[in-house]
User: Fold this.
Amino acid sequence: MKKIFLFSILIFGCTIYAQNSVQKAIESFEKAFQNKSYSEIKSLLAPEFSVGAGDSSSNEFYLNSIFNAFPVLDSIETGKLVTIKNETFVLADFCFKGKEKKPTQIVFNSDNKILYVTFFDGLYRVDRNAQVKEVASIPFEIIENGIAIKIKLNKADREFLMLFDTGADGMALNPDSAYKAGVVVTKSKSASVVGGSQQVQYSADNTIYIGDQVLKNQGLVIFPKHGVYDGLFGANLLRNYITSVNFDTMTIDLYNFGNFNYWGKAKPLVFDYKSGLPVVKLNLTFEDKKTVEGNFTFDTGAGYDLIAYGPFNHKNNLEASLKTEYTSINYSLGKQTKIVGGAIPNIAINGNNFPDVTVALQEYDEANKNWAFADGSLGIDLIKRFNFTIDVLHKTVYLEPNKNFKKRASFYFAGLDLEFDENQNLLVKKIIDQQNKDLQQVKVGAKVTQINDFEAKDLLKPENLKKLKETKESKDLIIEQNDQSLRISI
Assistant:
């Protein structure tokens, strides 16, 4: 009985201590808000604190905007306090001079740092306790190995074909499409691209129409045209909706933010969102048994399985561990960087393992070594093995295996990027060696029926593919396209 009594006293004492710590934090928060001082508030915030669906790098902007929008704070009146699963919820009222009280929840983590303030979230149209419902379902196509959707812009009657790019922190249009959309340039700014940054023209206050949803006050930049697309966008959706991309139904389903309970079996993968883009942890295993962990942007706009950026490549000496199968140039909205490519034995993503995956390593530039906020990009070729759901409010992505999950990875051979389709036909996915005159005859989508002594279907066996790659003989390919058969020797 004595032990139980002492244990009860200990628990009671810990609870009182936690409540006192939270109360002191609220008093410091109150004083900082009265002083309208972000520097004072910053130390009270948890690393993952955000306002609405924003990223932590925007906290200063959001909080200063709130300071400027309201009169001087009189006090914060606190009410009931409840601790649930290492989070402490405090009911409170913001009392501003000459204004009615603004009710809120202030939520703390186990270190008594502020995770979020519901009053702040509401100012940016986010209710964390709202019932989550589907608000739109948008069909998409796969075009040039990208997720293609159609939108309308501003007052233009025509539709614009856009790449849905989760690695883009905003929207970009090519000059001709920007003209047709009635875009008005408001200033120049620096934009981040793979390999560095560049100055671009920027336009504010544009309106996106997607399905029956309207997104106002959208900024965009103008970049050179690349491929068939009018432009690209990504964060415009992610910051406004729980975004679910389903490659089985070929739809992007949009849901309002709120108290989200995922409907599938996938384990939640928490991502870093400090950069305004989702960044996830991956593990890479190389042929020499080297294993490295990195933080990679979840990037549907990257036309690879995975690309590792120059600084990460240099830091881990990855090129020494990669058997180079090709060299090429990466294009990112007009910026060019050299890359080398080859296959590695495994990439692990949130408990999912993918063998024999092709990766690209960007060259390192000592004069431009600090541009990257992530170690690389997880690209569309691996991403599309999952139906994925991104919830920026809770910094979580769900990766649900789909019909492509067990599909063989593409591989490089004789200046080509080749892949098997769902019917086990071997197709040309990309022409890597653009300078080879024989390969200039070949078109993307052409069917490869034989390479040397192997029929295409024989290369589904890893041992045959390995033997083919190691051959010192000339590379003879039989390719079918446009109802004709081509024989090419490399």
User: Anything to note?
Assistant: The chain has a mean pLDDT of 91. The first strand starts at residue 73 and ends at 84.
